[in-house]
Design a protein that fits this description.
The complex is a heterodimer of chains A (157) and B (177). Chain A is an all-alpha fold and 157 residues long. Chain A is 75% helix and 0% strand. The N and C termini of chain A lie far apart (48 Å). With 177 residues, chain B is of the alpha+beta class. In chain B, α2 crosses α3. Classes of the chains: A mainly alpha (157), B alpha+beta (177). At the A-B interface, α7 and α9 of A face β2 of B.
Chain lengths: 157, 177
């Protein structure tokens, strides 16, 4: 059982952390969100159908936890620890990818309904079909959000 | 009498006729203008879309701007694009999409503002070849195989340039280890 959990954590930790970081924009809160997601997965008694379902469940739960934290009264009354973007970007970049800090920073500043589809599509390489499943939205909605999010991004840059 | 004179000079039927003609002309003008505007809007939208496609299919980094310059991204609209198209037939070959992950790629370009991502991997074998996979905002996936021996060092072709970068990345990765 313990082996199963450690495998799960090893497999998804980095990806979930990047997704949490793109929402929380600071390391400590992102780590908290990921831990909470794993805890909920362990406590959850819903049967997981397959690996893809497992992955989608974890991503969806992580995003929901982040949004809950961001909406919480406690979070809104406190000032998050501000890291420099350069430090922050280290937590999110993949080693083989061409760096573009300006764009990444602008993506992280997009409203949540654009940020998550754009982050998952471009930075985590999910398909529109997969993102629709993860975010519980229609594929058409995801396409629209990708287009509008990109337009907003261009305006902001 | 006075009334009759007025009616004679600018009678109701004549006035209505004139007014109708004026309206019709105005309507015709505004319709033509609207059609013109709509066509322009369509063209700029097409330019934007084809610009993104052209970014992966035949122009360099500022693909969109270039696509707008060369008649909304139509291949063959200018001499250099035609040359690129010819080069494309030589060095590029469309292949089946493998759905390669970022982790498996040697080089990745994420062009969020352009609406596409590129993934490249050096192919194993005697010939220097690079597999390039493009994913577009509308969900389309395209894959190419680039024969590096046929690619010019000064190529303006986005996929070819990306393949060159992938080769360098691959070499660096090999050098380090």
């Amino acid at each position: 059982m313990e082996q199963e959990w450690s495998y799960l954590v090893e497999e998804y930790r980095a990806m979930l952390y990047r997704i949490a970081f793109s929402n929380m924009k600071n390391r400590a809160d992102a780590e908290d969100a990921v831990q909470e997601a794993f805890l909920r997965y362990m406590k959850d008694e819903k049967p997981i159908q397959n690996k893809e379902h497992e992955k989608a469940w974890l991503i969806r739960t992580t995003i929901h936890i982040c949004l809950d934290i961001l909406k919480s009264g406690w979070y809104q009354r406190t000032v998050p620890w501000n890291e420099s973007f350069e430090n922050a970007a280290k937590n999110i970049y993949l080693p083989y990818q061409v760096r573009d800090d300006e764009t990444l920073e602008a993506v992280l500043r997009l409203p949540v309904h654009y940020r998550n589809p754009i982050y998952l599509f471009y930075y985590e390489d999910y398909s529109i079909h997969e993102i629709a499943g993860i975010l519980n939205e229609k594929e058409g909605t995801i396409k629209t959000r990708l287009r509008r999010g990109r337009e907003e991004l261009r305006r902001n840059l | 009498m006075g009334i009759q004179e007025v009616q004679g000079q600018s009678g109701t039927p004549a006035y209505q006729k004139k007014k109708k003609t004026g309206r019709a002309e105005g309507f015709q003008k505004s319709l033509l203008q609207n059609l013109k505007n709509r066509d322009q809007e369509k063209l700029s939208n097409t330019a934007f879309e084809t610009g993104t496609k052209a970014a992966a299919a035949g122009t360099q980094a500022g693909a969109q701007t270039k696509a707008e310059k060369v008649g909304m991204g139509r291949i063959g609209a200018t001499k250099d694009i035609r040359m690129n198209a010819a080069a494309m037939q030589e060095a590029l070959q469309a292949v089946e999409v493998r759905r390669m992950s970022y982790e498996d790629s040697d080089h990745v370009r994420i062009a969020v503002t352009e609406g596409y991502t590129l993934k490249g991997k050096r192919e194993e074998g005697a010939d220097a070849r690079v597999y390039v996979e493009a994913k577009y905002e509308d969900g389309r996936l395209e894959a190419y195989q680039v024969e590096m021996a046929k690619v010019s060092g000064q190529t303006e072709h986005l996929i070819e340039q990306f393949a060159i970068e992938t080769m360098k990345e691959g070499e660096e990765a090999y050098d380090f280890g």
